[in-house]
Fold:
Amino acid sequence: MPAARIEKCFTDFIESYTNENNIYIGSATYFLYSKFIIESYGLPVENRYSVSEIASKLKQAGLDKVIVNYLIVRYLDGMYLLAQLQSEEEKFWP
Structure:
């Protein structure tokens, strides 16, 4: 079950995207999705959304398939980069 703080981040992102209909780098919507990724990374796996849950919620919100695919890739890439950064900080190379 996702933690309340990432549910709010995700809901805020969906609302912003629905209103603005863009996710350009530097936009408020872009930063909201980035916040969702960062907040998600800081939680135990069992308190995060699964990739399939994210995709399902994005589709339910009416986002185009291309945007859904982009956001999933961005989520996975962001999680990987945060894990890699944490590994480097702990002096461990995967």
Observations:
- Helices lie at 4-20, 28-41, 51-60, 65-89.
- Residues 65-89 form the longest helix (25 residues).
- Residues 58 and 68 are 6 Å apart (CA to CA).
- The chain has a mean pLDDT of 90.
